[in-house]
Amino acid sequence: MNEHLKISSSPCQPTTTRVQWIDIAKAYGMIAIVLGHILINGPLARFLYWWHIPIFFMITGIFLKPLTNPNDWKRFFMKRIRNELLLYVAMGGLLIYLYTVIHHKSQRFLLNHWFDLVLGGRTLNFYTSTFWFINVYILTIIVVTVMISMTKNWSIHLLLTISGLMIETSFKQITWMHLNGFAMMPWNMDTVMVTAFYAYAGYALFHHNRIWLERFKMILLIWLAAIGLIFVHQISGFSFRLSLKSHLMQSSLPMGIAIIVIPIIFSLAVMAGACVTAKSSVKFGLPLIGRHTLAIMYGHKLFLDLCLINGIKSVFVRLTIGVMVPVVLGIVIQKIKATFIKPTH
């Protein structure tokens, strides 16, 4: 999830270091996720849910590529899948243990929730409530990589991804499978029919050309589309709710159209904002945050809970702690690894 590209003199052009606007877009998305978990069910939180998960899958799609031989597949599974799984298990086990200790839970509670790491999806709660994203992320990159490797025909790609999205939005919840009291499939695997569409959208829009977004006319057009959607929402009062973990997808608009248009337009608007930010002289540490979004994804629920335990109610202070403490820990861990673990070639 922390892949990087190369850039030259342009903040959006790939050639020598990380593509800065992608890091900044990830930072905006991660701040939105943490803020959404602080505000919970308010109007702003519901708006953030429109795009803060889809944007990460769109960014994921930028880095996917067709694999053409067995060695490519081996490297893909060893570096992308295995490493994510090991981190998922290690961080999940640690955070469940910390919750058990901090909240004085029983050993039975500990063992039951460790097993939830196997089931994944909606069974993951407390400090691991965001881990469903890792489940779906792993499944999504496998599915989309297989699809773009098997055929280069974009019309087949669109047919498969749009068909999957339409199937997923045609029902409210899984009713024929229950795990630990939740109506769900293991690892929320049915949600991949939605996230694969967003990942493929990122692949199709940016894989071959990542600099089109920095053009002023494109930025203006995307922002006007996003502002237009907000205006129409205010005037018409159309409803739209999106929570992929809970399979909550509701809209007074045709659901298939809403779940395609709304998240993609707002995700592109945030990416366009990131590209503008990348060209500015003041970036408020956003590139640094964007380089450590995985640490924030894993750790912010722990620190938000510690804030409440210690009586910290300020939204700004909790947001700052929830974002920056995992970033600092991520930097420390990276330096320790760099010092004591030699890279293998």
TrEMBL record:
UniProt key word Nucleus: no
A GO molecular-function descriptor: acyltransferase activity
Keyword Transmembrane: yes
All copies of domain Acyltransferase, residue ranges: 20-296
Name of a matching Pfam family: Acyl_transf_3
Keywords associated with the record: Acyltransferase, Membrane, Transferase, Transmembrane, Transmembrane helix
Transmembrane regions listed in the UniProt entry: 21-41, 47-64, 85-104, 124-146, 158-179, 185-206, 218-235, 255-277, 284-303, 315-333
Source species, domain of life: Bacteria
Protein name: Acyltransferase family protein
